[in-house]
# Entry
Amino acid sequence: MDTRTAWSVPGYTEVRELGSGGSGRVALAVHDATGTAVAVKYLSDRLREDPAFVGEFRAEARLLGGLESPYVVRLYEYVEAPGGAAIVMELVDGVSLRALLRQSGQADAEAALVVLKGSLLGLAAAHRAGVVHRDYKPENVLVAADGSSKLVDFGIAANRGSTPGVAGTPAYMAPEQWQGRPASPAADVYAATATFFECLTGRKPYDGVNFAELAVQHVEAPVPETEAPEPVRPLIRRGLAKAPEQRPENAEAFVAELEDVALAAYGPQWEERGQRKLAALAALLPLLFPSAGGTAAGTTASATTALGAGSGWAPGRSGWLAAGIALVMGAVLVLTTDAIGAAPGGASALSAFATTSAAPPGPTSPGPSVTASSTAGASPSASSSPSPSPSASASASPSASPSTSPSASWSQAPTGQATPSASPTPSWSPTPTPAPTPKVTSVDVTLKTAVYRGDATVTVSSQGTGPVTVVVEWFLGGAQGSYAVPDGSESFTVRAGTTVTTTRSHAFSRDRGCYGGVRVTTKPAAGNKSASASQYLLRCVEVPR
# Structure
């Protein structure tokens, strides 16, 4: 049956199809009651006939419903009825990290650290819930227009300590994943580090041409840390350690190490600079943003990699054993791919991820779109355009525990006809509501000056949700409280709903006044509009004019 003419989720008006593949399709839709733009991921009719695929699809929705993090795509609703099954998610107006790397080749160290930190915070939320993602890779990290990042696609996630089988994307799989050992957060740390390495160098840590070579390399090849910039090599060395106990135990621990390394190497402003650099890279791909309203894209990808010339390394006995295991696993994966109807010469899979802005688009706003990536069910991972990395997913169904958000509820769907699945047909329907507009209650600043230098401590108090833009303007003057000569400005974003304090540093120009000043404003405007401070610059000598 053509899924484009099949069942759609009640209560939503579909705007257009955004992607399709062997496992289903993704559509942009609008929630009729609130006008909120959403992404709807439909499981294909063929896979709905297999209870294992339906079970995994349902488990993915339950897992998303239990994760409360701004760094993970949010679940709005899961609906399963005789006519179909669908996951309704928030819409992220961003591009995949894979698309950025395809455009730029590699990223600056500060930008790579920022994208790693954001997606690691998403992993940390899953790890706290006892869930292992198992498929962290550039396709599953989204970068928004402001340079923030978000983790998506929990299609093959599993409970910590469970043994659901070999699954993941080979280029990023930890040694223990190749060996079918229990799922652990340390494996996600390994995959995140492999992605970080690719951001820094423009290539994957290991480049075997098939499953066997990749397995051997991940299990016993040396960690290629020397190819990364020297300041961040400790992160590469720790994150790609062969033994899981030699890595940070989870994503939260890895974030702490990352922040220590970044601060020591690049100073207190590394994150703001890195986010601006990411935003600049994303701005080079305007047509790939969901809000650009492009046409629907297929999700068939070629499962091949290329082997670099002459590494000078050969596997030992344990490596050859791993190679044998990988060859067997590869045959299983090929059979699995064929069984689910992958396109000839490639692997078909589908996943949707999307982001909403602080307020839903108005009636005249261009409807945001969605970026399609991997997985629905036990299919090999694939991105919306050809990817050089093969993907393996031999597990049938992760056993993520049912966990719902407070607004979620279960109800029985209508049963006017026999369901294709042998399982019951529940409908899980939390109602999406537009995100509140952020409100800034106050902004404050204090200024400490040194020799032609100032450190401004900015405090922003806000309510609601969504981004708040903070603008810091620097001035020079001939008297205290004088803001006569502009001396530069900067801006950064914070998340509403908290009180945030941060210190911004500035080197003032010489011979333009002995009093340094700073003025801070926010968008939206704060209740007290702005805050400012002015202080004498030490050792400053006013030059007569």
Q: What stands out?
A: The CA atoms of residues 12 and 391 lie 33 Å apart. The chain is about 25% helix and 25% strand.
